[in-house]
Amino acid sequence: MSHEYQVIFATAVFLITYGIIVSEKIHRAVAAFCGAAVVIIAGIVDAEKAVEYVDFNTIGLLIGMMIIVGISRQTGVFEYLAIKAAKQSGGEPVRIMAALGLITAVLSALLDNVTTVLLIVPVTFAIARQLKVNVIPFLIVEILASNIGGTATLIGDPPNIMIGSATKLGFMDFVLNLTPVVVVIYVTTIFILKLIYRKQIIASRESMQKIMSMDENAEIKDQALLKKCITVLVLTVTGFALHQFVHLESSVIALSGAALLLLLTRMDPEHAFHAVEWPVIFFFIGLFVIVGALEEVGVIEAIAHYALQVTGGALLPAGMLILWLSAIASAFVDNIPFVATMIPLIQDMGRLGGIQDLNFLWWSLSLGACLGGNGTIIGASANVVVIGMAEKRGSPISFMGFFKIAFPLMLLSVAISMLYLFMWYVLHTTIAMLITLAFGIVLSLVLGRISKRSGAKDENKTTAGV
């Protein structure tokens, strides 16, 4: 097969696979795995090269965290937190909604947003039944909070895991650069949602009293297991915070934490490994190979050339373009395959444009992809999970019902991100200029002194000669 036909073939496989994923006619893991098989069988990439394109750091991190969370969920600690928050809110629906949103955001930052909503949503239904109010406002808040909270850290959302693994950016890099704007976005979003829903979820005093009589301590099923899980989780998160300093990959930290927890709990590995969402893992593997095929034939590099022409190779316009493109695209298609495509594209833009520091573009991609997932009910995995759970319990959320609330809030969050990124860029550019200027002044003074000393020595030599 000639190179031209390889380009056409690889692009066609990518687009067809993407279309199947969006249509949801076939499970996305099957679609991605079949696409990967096709490009290997067709000879676009050989088997050895295909393995090289798989990011095993991302895979290891996901598996490790899934095992830790899977064991931890057996303790009942997440149900405990939800009921405790509801009681701390005095049983008032709007305050409970905000409290559950906060717990969802924090847990999504420390665990991952899909796991968090799987744990929080069942408790939310129980609380809404006790209050005798519509559960849908609570679910919408939790969907938005999960994606916003997941944006804050390396492990909170799959796009961040992929970006961190590809760029060697650490846990603290994400926390320091993204958490400030995430906090602003979260507070703004919850404030607006409270205004929207405050007259829609009103409960009687009797219903509120039922919430106050719930026993959160009864949800803790195994105190000894809980202590072990909290210990390992704290050690793992600490490891993430320090992994750049101890020179260990984030996947090594996560898998080590999972191994330690398995050792401490003496749990049957076969039972513990059921917590791993293997379809998600194989979806990632297939996706990495398909995008690798695009890299292999030069499609990604060609798009990077075009992007550089559009932005003139300037960092600020490129970052704004990536932010908005990622947000709008991620609202209507799954953000995971989109980010998988964008990562090599940004790397090629840096290489071709001679850009040494690409961090501004990585933060633009992270904010756009993670927050853009809030735009529609199909924008992120957490959204789809919550919608499915709501349908099973007889509380379906329509596409347009979600869209008219979430999409404007998503645009607002991206606008806040744009302002933040602009300030981030100006600040870092100014600091860099000041450092360069200071270095230049110091260098000039040093060279000036050396020159004076050299001139004085020459004068002395001349005087001595006379």
Automatic annotation (TrEMBL):
Subcellular location(s) of the protein: Cell membrane
UniProt domain Citrate transporter-like: residue ranges: 19-368
UniProt-recorded Gene Ontology molecular function terms: arsenite transmembrane transporter activity
This protein's UniProt keywords: Cell membrane, Membrane, Transmembrane, Transmembrane helix, Transport
InterPro entries, alphabetized: Arsenical_pump_ArsB (IPR000802), Cit_transptr-like_dom (IPR004680), Diverse_Ion_Transporter (IPR051475)
This protein's record includes keyword Methyltransferase: no
Keyword Transmembrane helix: yes
Membrane topology of the entry: Multi-pass membrane protein
Main location: membrane
GO annotation, cellular component aspect: plasma membrane
Domain of life: Bacteria
Transmembrane segments: 7-23, 29-47, 59-76, 96-121, 133-155, 175-197, 230-263, 275-294, 306-333, 360-390, 402-425, 431-451
PANTHER family associated with the record: P PROTEIN (PTHR43568:SF1)
Family named by the database record: Belongs to the CitM (TC 2.A.11) transporter family.
Protein name in UniProt: Possible tyrosine transporter P-protein
